[in-house]
Every structure is written in structure tokens, then in C-alpha cells.
Amino acid sequence: MPGGRRDVLGVRIAPALLRFGAALPGRRYRAALSVRNLRAGSCRLRLLPPRRPQFKLIVENPEKPVAPGLQVKAVVEYYPESEEDLEDRLLLLIEEDVVDIPLLGYGGQKFIFCRYCFQFNLVENLLTPVTYGYITKLSTVMKMNSKFLYNFFFPIAVHR
């Protein structure tokens, strides 16, 4: 799952965001999350759940401060009820500070609208993505004002 990692306030959040792509209604999707203490001393870490009922946080928050080098592990579940795109966030409490961890749920298949002609591996002008994601199929040459389907499998690289 894309998202990388993010170091902030002496902890490492991996992945930096949780993205659930091409999610179908009525199915359950899960993603792992870890928060590692990179500080020289112990610190209190606590994950708070998202607001939307479609996202569920499963975590055992420690009662005591987390020692240096140790981590808190969690799982986020996503249960889409329809093919809509949803956004939410987890709140990570680090001592007295608060950090957002974005949650993104994308429903179904998406389209990209191409305003200009381009050839595969050679973009002559800018694509306008309807939403973020990945291409499933792409013909060698696209015609003006055409749409093509993408479904979160292969990365899109758009260069100006």
C-alpha cells in the first residue's frame, strides 16, 4: 500500500497515510500501521479512532510510556457502504502534541480525462486526474478529450 513513512516529533509513522483503493461496498479491507519511538527517552503514544463508522481502529494503546526503539502497532479496517470516496483521519497523541494520519477510501473504478493527445511514455501535455490512483490499461495513443479507466494497480507519472 502506498504511503511511505513520516518522521515527526521524534516518532516514525509507517505508513504516513492509509489508502484503500478500488474498494467494493460490503467488503472488509485492512491495513497495518506502526508508530515507533525514535527519541532518546520514553514517550507517551496514543492513537485515537476516526470519526466515520466506515473506518475502524484496532489498537492496544499502552498505559505506560513507550521506550526508545519500541513501537505501537495498529490495524485500520475499512468497510465501504457505497462506491463513494471517503476521507478521515486518525489522531496520534505524542505526549501533549497531536499529529494527523490521513485515511483515504476510494470506491470502485475511476476515470482520467485527457484534454490533449499523448502517446504512451510520452506525455505532450497535462492530464487531469479525476481522483488519485493507478492505470489498469492504456492504449498506445490516446485521442483528444478521451477517458480511460484506472483502478489503483500501476502508478501514474505525469511530467510537465
Percent of residues in helices comes to under 10%
CATH class of the largest domain: Mainly Beta
- What is the H/E string? EEEEEEEEEEEEEEEE
Strand content: over 45%
The total number of structural domains is 2
Q: What key attributes describe this structure?
A:
single chain; 2 domains; 160 residues; 16 strands; mainly beta
What this model shows, in words?
The chain has a 5-stranded antiparallel sheet with strand order 1-2-4-7-6, with no helix packed on it. The chain has a 4-stranded mixed sheet with strand order 3-9-8-5, with no helix packed on it. The chain folds into 2 domains: about 5-105, Immunoglobulins (Immunoglobulin-like, Sandwich); about 110-155, no CATH class. By secondary structure, it is mostly beta strands. The radius of gyration is 19 Å and the shape is elongated. A hairpin with a 2-residue loop joins β1 (about 5-10) and β2 (about 10-15). The protein has strands spanning about 5-10, 10-15, 20-25, 30-35, 45-50, 55-60, 70-80, 85-95, 95-105, 110-115, 120, 125-130, 135, 140, 145-150, 155. The chain has no helices and 16 strands.
Map the helices and strands.
Layout: E1 6-8, E2 11-14, E3 18-23, E4 29-37, E5 45-48, E6 55-59, E7 71-78, E8 86-94, E9 97-107, E10 110-114, E11 118-119, E12 127-129, E13 134-135, E14 141-142, E15 146-150, E16 154-155
Parallel strand pairs: 3-9
Antiparallel strand pairs: 1-2, 2-4, 4-7, 5-8, 6-7, 8-9, 10-12, 10-15, 11-14, 13-16
